[in-house]
Amino acid sequence: MTQTDDGPRQRRPRGPYAKSDAVRAGILDACLEVFAQFGFRGTTMKDVAARAGISHTGLLHHFPTKAALLDAVLRRRYDDAAGVIMAVPRRDVLAAQARVLHENTAQPGIIQLHTIISAEATSADHPAHDFFAKRLDDFREYLTRAFEDAQAEGRLKIDAEPEQLSNLYMAVQDGLQLQWLYNPGAVDIEQGVRIFLSSIIEGDLG
Fold first, then answer.
1. Alpha-carbon gap, residue 78 to 117, rounded angstroms
2. CATH homologous superfamily of 11-200
3. pLDDT tens, 29-62?
4. CA angle at residue 123 from 137 to 48, to 5 degrees?
5. Contact, 124 vs 142, CB < 8 A?
6. Cα torsion angle, 36, 179, 106, 144, sign
7. 201 forms bridges with which residues in the sheet?
8. Contacts of 183 (CB under 8 A, 6+ apart)
9. 19: which of 65, 156, 188, 189 is 20 to 30 A away, CA to CA?
């Protein structure tokens, strides 16, 4: 590590390590595009290698199986989103999630990936089944706490269980994203989510 006036700073990877990180990032970018287009079951490792511009052998050096590749691209995607959500106070989490949805529309592949792979993963033998099941449970729990806070503050406009509101929120979000994929010009995902939230919660959502 190097030392600065602001404290210790990690050295950036150099040489082959930096190149390896760049190659992995390129593979994951290519993977997102191919999985979003063809789904997990319709994609081959050769498809990903071709899109990434590397050899099949080179791809296997970084990701030995298609399941490992899927796991890596999903974790990168949802870790990025989680970082945005976790960085705000819980009172602001609903507004932060709406902003994430807006940002996703600038990268259609992300919405396609989520929609296609999450539908495929309902099958218990799909390699992403456990990932999505846990993600949904964790997201439901986090949303439920946010709705519980609103309820405790007297900001809920309706008499409903916070967990049920969480289920409805996720249904609205995923439903709007699916419609957006068919006709982006007719659907505003962020606005739709905000309209839903303003119908059940008092106050400015940010």
1. 13
2. Tetracycline Repressor, domain 2 (1.10.357.10)
3. 898 888 888 888 889 999 999 999 999 999 999 9
4. 100
5. no
6. negative
7. 156
8. none
9. 65
